Inverse folding.
């Protein structure tokens, strides 16, 4: 499945690591940074998550919500959140539904999980505004922040 910028983002209603619902329709009116990562608690995934956490106050000031997704279990996601002191929701996507809907599943027929680090910026109307593939975990949160500043007219 190939998603196209400008088209509606695939809807989702998922449970986060802390048991709360995360629903794209309920997030209308906000920017959504939906980022997919291969495996919780690995060095690069930890770095990327911590960079998003550090940028979170600025992202929220621009009206954005950050949501991280991997195919890890709820328990592993919760442990990752606690270990990295994350305050944004992490979605365990064990059945790979979200990953399939967003086209980020990899491996033999999608059996291996999330293939690469990918991020989708979803606009307040629920359309895909931007899509990044194979991102650098050390600099990506800053790239997303700059793009959001550009799109909202903030400096």
């Amino acid at each position: 499945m190939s998603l196209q910028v400008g088209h509606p983002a695939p809807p989702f209603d998922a449970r986060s690591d802390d048991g709360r619902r995360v629903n794209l329709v309920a997030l209308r009116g906000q920017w959504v940074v939906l980022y997919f990562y291969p495996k919780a608690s690995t060095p690069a995934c930890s770095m990327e998550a911590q960079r998003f956490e550090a940028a979170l106050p600025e992202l929220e000031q621009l009206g954005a919500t950050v949501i991280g997704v991997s195919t890890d279990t709820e328990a592993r996601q919760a442990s990752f959140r606690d270990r990295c002191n994350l305050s944004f929701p992490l979605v365990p996507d064990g059945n790979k539904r979200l990953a399939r809907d967003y086209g980020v599943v990899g491996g033999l027929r999608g059996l291996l999980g999330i293939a690469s680090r990918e991020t989708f910026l979803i606009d307040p109307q629920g359309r895909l505004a931007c899509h990044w593939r194979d991102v650098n975990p050390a600099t990506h949160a800053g790239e997303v922040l700059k793009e959001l500043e550009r799109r909202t007219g903030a400096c």
In short: The chain is about 30% helix and 25% strand. Helices lie at 43-61, 74-84, 97-101, 140-152. The chain has a mean pLDDT of 91.
